[in-house]
Specification:
Blueprint: E1 11-19, H1 26-35, E2 39-45, E3 52-62, H2 64-80, E4 85-92, H3 103-107, E5 114-123, H4 129-135, E6 141-146, E7 156-165, H5 169-184, E8 188-200
Antiparallel strand pairs: 1-3, 1-4, 2-3, 2-6, 4-8, 5-7, 5-8, 6-7
Protein name: Ankyrin
Organism: Kitasatospora viridis
């Protein structure tokens, strides 16, 4: 196994610690994060095994080892205060050192690496979440939203998340373009964010959420 370049050079990293947290403890978790200068998110998936996904987010620039040490310390502090972390996801920009440009380069990387795309969509009055989910079917994507952000009178804000496993930046870009093409007719796309996941400790928390791309069906 090769040593990815991001393990050797300083980069900007972002990590999300997903916490299995009862609804009546969410405010406490949010305050725990604020007290430490960390961002708190509460993402809700449209379907799946674990639809409620509160997250504590850490960002920083340095080596991967330094960043992961900080994340591990935060996870341990969560446990010490009675919370239950169930997943750590470490991300970098898709142009970071060592991010695979080709499918062949991606094949040499650990299995828990993948590209992830977040498309922010504003649903107009009368548009349903189910209609959005149907439109992205077959693109390795599905719908989520931020539980702590109120919807406005002009519609609901939703996110379409797409994951691309085992491929390089070029192929991931093609899949994102296809997804955006599917959304172009009738949906109000507000922003697009691209990331590369360097490590995902527990993808099973998303079981039953994301659609599977047709070309991946035979590989499962």
């Amino acid at each position: 196994m090769i040593t990815p370049m991001w393990q050797q050079h300083p980069e900007q990293f972002e990590s999300h610690i997903t916490v299995d947290c009862a609804a009546d403890r969410l405010d406490r978790l949010a305050q725990w994060s604020a007290d430490r200068g960390l961002e708190f998110l509460h993402i809700v998936l449209a379907r799946g095994r674990m639809t409620s996904q509160p997250m504590v987010t850490l960002t920083g620039t340095g080596t991967l080892a330094e960043h992961r040490a900080a994340v591990a310390a935060a996870a341990e502090a969560l446990r010490a205060d009675g919370f239950r972390p169930v997943r750590v996801k470490v991300e970098a920009a898709p142009w970071a050192s060592g991010v695979p440009g080709s499918d062949a380069e991606a094949a040499a990387l650990p299995a828990d690496t993948y590209f992830e795309h977040h498309v922010k969509v504003r649903l107009r009055p009368g548009q349903s979440r189910d209609r959005l989910a149907e439109r992205v079917r077959g693109h390795g994507a599905h719908v989520s939203w931020n539980a702590r952000r109120a919807d406005g009178p002009d519609g609901e804000q939703r996110f379409v998340t797409q994951r691309c496993h085992g491929v390089g930046l070029a192929t991931a870009g093609e899949r994102l373009a296809a997804l955006l093409g599917a959304l172009a007719d009738g949906f109000d796309v507000r922003s697009v964010e691209r990331e590369f996941v360097l490590h995902d400790s527990n993808t099973s928390v998303d079981d039953g959420w994301l659609d599977v791309q047709p070309e991946l069906e035979g590989a499962r």
